[in-house]
Request: fold
Amino acid sequence: MMVYFTFEPREDLKAPLIAQFPQVDFKFDSKLDVANLREAQILVTYGEDLTEQLVDEAQNLEWIFVASAGVEKMPAAAIAKSDILVSNVRGIHKKPMTESILAHILALKRGLPFIYEQQSKGQWNKKTTLSELNGSTALIIGPGAIGSEIGRILQAFDVYTIGCNRSGEAAPYMDETHLLGDMAQYLPKADIIISMLPSTKYTKHLLGYEHFKLMKESAIFMNFGRGDLVDTNVLVQVMKEQLIAHAVLDVYEIEPLPANSPLWACENVTLSPHFSSHSSRYVERGLEIFKPSLEQWLNGERNLENKMNLLRGY
Amino acid sequence: MMVYFTFEPREDLKAPLIAQFPQVDFKFDSKLDVANLREAQILVTYGEDLTEQLVDEAQNLEWIFVASAGVEKMPAAAIAKSDILVSNVRGIHKKPMTESILAHILALKRGLPFIYEQQSKGQWNKKTTLSELNGSTALIIGPGAIGSEIGRILQAFDVYTIGCNRSGEAAPYMDETHLLGDMAQYLPKADIIISMLPSTKYTKHLLGYEHFKLMKESAIFMNFGRGDLVDTNVLVQVMKEQLIAHAVLDVYEIEPLPANSPLWACENVTLSPHFSSHSSRYVERGLEIFKPSLEQWLNGERNLENKMNLLRGY
Reply:
């Protein structure tokens, strides 16, 4: 039984893992090696190193544990055809991402960019308008595990939360939940619009110019899902025309964001380099999810935590 | 019955106030005028325009409503001698200040200064360490109305909260509360130390070099109470020696912070110009506290909300 990691956890995380599973042959590489992949029954990967051909070569592979939430770069059809089980670390992102999102919202409301700028000039200056988050309304597009955690924290700040998802079924920590198709009705009510949507055929360019037209002029739009939710040219136009007050982006249609992207020149946009889920505690947490799943696997159970349907995309 | 404001609320806030109290003669000035003060029974002020002599002149004055939390600049002894009731807007600050404090904490944990800096250079750069707030321990020195609100939000972020106050009695939203005198015991446990203490004889230079020595090297120290809690020279030394990771200051021994203060040169210090309670909704909220109090006053009640003991200082 070989478990193959295509990244290297820190020594202090590796040792307890090996000790807990003496019956398992662990192999750690900092980069995928085909020979090792051919032997592996279980692959632990960030999900960016697999191709269709590699999946064909991985004759012993039964389970892929993806230490990441996004799986767009995985050869979904080949994996499904080979009947390989896939699970990921969905829950792992919810706390760091929620903290990043709240950091950005509160920074804008409470003048942090202004504070930093004045400090860099050595100037004591109070001349800016500070506002407040409490009493706002937030629209969360795609309130899954992360979106619901955002809702929980926003509610603690006395924010009214509206969720829009594909089923329209009540999502946790949403004061209201509606169908994604009815989103346009709720855009005019929201002070903050946060998208956590994955990239699927359905979500591509789902938000158009007409949607931004419906938002408040004072609205903050945050995209922490996937970059193709909005056509970049549309977004640039929206921000240049100041249809809304501010956008905070962590994801882009092309990543890294090209150096000549007009987004760099938009003063009312915050550009985060798709790392809002990063954390010094990331691998530690991934292993906290992997270890009980491996325990179950060794006991013959196959209904693992965060089991995914790759063809559906989440 | 004359109510004298030494500041001018916006028209849309003034009109309903006048309409609600037809029996009251309201007078609004943008600056204190002695002739008006002499006539006033009730004074509404930011608390920075009174002197001992003016209090002596204010022969009709029975109640001072201070639209601010700090009262250090008020002639406490003269006011007490004249038996003038004083109340303030204590609750008004708790939400904006808590939001400012969380903004600063989350910004540091989630790399916002780094994001802003890279963006200003037009660089896509993920090379920084992001950490998380959840799982931390916070020590709140002076968990009053504001400190408890901070505790409430920190607990929502899964932070363990320890309060230190003068009585040692349990404060709301603190997992533990201890005597201020025992603070040294809890400093080594805290990832974040937040002071909300007022300026009194007891709190002046209460935190010394030896206290910072007890803190974790990774600790964040935040002073949002009053600047004389720490001798500025001590604080500069502490930050230069990097005894702790970061300090966020909203208050200073001398305000505005002098242009030649060595604090400006400390890279591990965030300098906020004593405005963390500011809000575009400030006067509106102040009037929300003042109006029911005035209603009570007119009915002969004197036990008003946020009644203060000026000689005690809070």
